[in-house]
Amino acid sequence: MAAALPVAAQVPAHAAALPVFSTCQDVRRTIPLARDGTYLLINNGNVFTAYCHNMATTPAEYITLARTGQDVNYSQYTAGGASPGTNVRTAFTRLRVDPRTMTVDIGDLTFASSTGSLRHASTTVTSMPYGAAMACTGSADGRGNIDLRGTPFRVADTFVTGGNAPTGSASASARNQVVALQGGGYCGWITSAPVMYNPFNPQAGTPHLELRCSGRRTVFTRDQICVRLNDGAPVTTQVRRRGSQGRVIVQHGDKAVAVLGPDGQVRPLG
After folding, report:
1. How far is the C-alpha of 73 from the C-alpha of 61, rounded, in Å?
2. In the chain, which end has fewer C-beta atoms inside a 10 angstrom radius, N or C?
């Protein structure tokens, strides 16, 4: 079974047996028939899971959000004042992430849905990037929410206001896994730093929000994991047998934290 998962990443010496990959493209090159799914990656000192999307064509890495819906993990441009129409709210279920920097592409709307429409000067606004709140009412009427609870990630960034007479705030909680955003002005907004200009109708290719492993020694949530290798505990693998079947187990120190299938995908322990 281990032979079906060759090493495809530069791994520190203390974790040299780790049969994982650095990107989803690495998975596709090694396992050409790999399907979309959750894979274990190692990149720039982090061992973490990512959802690999478009494996048959152009693989890309995403983080799957555990908390989803219209009132969580959303960004909103609140209508009113100089921006008539209805509130534009974009809600996300997965976030595009750069596996090397752990930075979210806040403009990638592949796994997002938007409601509402308003006018910003001569532009029709129909969507918002992740981690933003905006309004043109003179007050911080824009709203946004980041909620990474149920995942092994946290926000590792600051937030800034921008625009004309900007005002707003970012209130972090739950060990920086939750951030409540309020932003506005005439017109104004709040986003992760550095300041952006008119953060609406975003395009993919906007890396802007930095994430980190959640900060606990090891975090394994459902089929997601994020471990920083420099915390002192080695990451190793071993093959265990259950009847006639073998399983590749990933261990962090003395704790088993993940199990890999022969296709490279992560499976819940059980």
Report:
1. 18
2. C
